[in-house]
Each structure stands twice: as structure tokens, then as C-alpha cells.
Amino acid sequence: MVYRFIDEHKESFGLRWLCRHFGISLNCYYNYLADKKEDYHKQREAILERIKYIFYNNNRTVGHRAVRIFLKRYGIYLSKTTVHKYMNKDLGLGAVIMRKKPNYKRCKKHKIFDNLLKQNFNVNEKNKVWCTDFTYMRQPNGKFRYNCTIIDLYDRSVIASKNSDYINTELAIDTLEEALNKENHPKNLILHSDQGVQYTSWEFVAFCKDNGVTQSMSKAGYPYDNAPMERFYNTFKNCFYYRYTFESVEMLDEMTRRYMNWYNYVRPHSANGYLTPMEARSK
After folding, report:
1. Lowest-confidence range among 99-103, 132-136, 223-227?
2. Which residues of 72-91 are buried (b: 16+ CB within 10 A; e: fewer)?
């Protein structure tokens, strides 16, 4: 306490006068400074090691904002600027850069169901608005494998996700059925999608009607009407699919399942104030 007082007030009273006043030799004060500096460097090295652990334990996909959230979970509170400096300047760590998607051309409007969201993606209750879409992944044998995922706009959590060799109505129905069963068939549910043939087919429309699901659709050629799914799959491709080589279809499916678990339970999400989807869901 005395050393700290001297350190804080030496400019006002003078270092020698303060040391004489408290009966402390200059050597003792300088030893205190040396110990203080050593403690700082030890603490800093421990923080740098923790940052490296977080970065590599999350497949090198987290930037300084996400790392800052992970550090808070360990009781380490740093500013965004400090974490950015530690990662970029001191450690040379850079997160994966998201690939830019090509510009979209507007297509002729072909509305099947009204767009009930109108790009309002803020939902204050879970299981009220879900979004869904497809993406493709190339298999080791050169053929494509397709993923269909449903997320809840309330917390951006993955409700259901399935892979298949076929991008068809059956995959869309199987994914929705799994989601409905998992969440005990919520009432007054809106499912938002694009106008793909899988979602406009008679079978899918009938399945939604039979299960009390109200369909909502983006305008044709307007991917921003389903922006949360666009962002989800952008992250999925850049943080997972593009970073691995899959030796088999079984490996692809298993690692897809692991990614969805990581996304729900580990990855902080900006839409949730940097809580994970499951943390936000359990609030």
C-alpha cells in the first residue's frame, strides 16, 4: 500500500522525500518496481498463452472480438483494442477471412407466400420464427452432398440440421419434422425460406399446413430477405467446410454434426450480445 502511494504521488511530493517520510530506502522502492514489472510480464505471458489456446482450440476461426468474449469466461477482462494488439502485433494471429459472395441479380417475382418478416429479424420469443435454407458440399468422390438447416431467429440457434445426397422436398420435410419434434411442435410458428421448389412443392406446403406452420418466403432473387440464413451458411462454409478435407461421407456428416454443436454451445454470436445461442436460449 505504501509503495503504491509513493508511486502515485512521487511527481507531486518527490520520490526521495516520500521514501524518507515513510522510512523506506530507495533500493527497496526500486526492488518493488522490478517485482511489479516482473509480475506484469508474467501476467501478460499467461494472457497470451490463453489467447493462443482459445484461437487454436476454435480452429483458428475466431477474431479479436470473439476472443475477448472467451477471455471473459476465464475472468480476464481486456479492451477490444488490447486483445486486437495482442493477437495481431504480438502473436500474429488472424482469423479466417470470410469469402465474399457474388452479387445477386434480381429475378422475376414469383411470390408463393407473402414475406411476413420484411427483413425484420428481431424476435423476442423462441420458437416463433424459424428460418431455413440449403447449401451444398462436395463429397470426396466428387459428388455433392446437401445440408438443410433450420435456425430460430430468437437466439440464432440451430434447431435441426441434416445432410443428404439429394436437395429435394424429402430433405426439407425431414429437417422440419426433426425440428418440430425436438421443440414439441410449437404453436403459431412461422417458417421463413426462399422460393425454392423444395419449399413450394405440394408435399412441403401440405406438411406445413398439417403441422400448423405458417410459411413466409423471400422475394425471388432477394437473398437479403433471408439474411440470417445467408450469414449462417457463410460462417458454416468459412469456419468449417473450407478448412477441412473429408475422407468419407461419414466423416463429413459427423464433422457437420460437431460443427453445429460448436456453433450452438461454444461460439459467441453478435446477435445475442456475444452470448452463445444456447446461453441466450436458456436466459
Report:
1. 99-103
2. eeeeeebeeeebbebbeeee
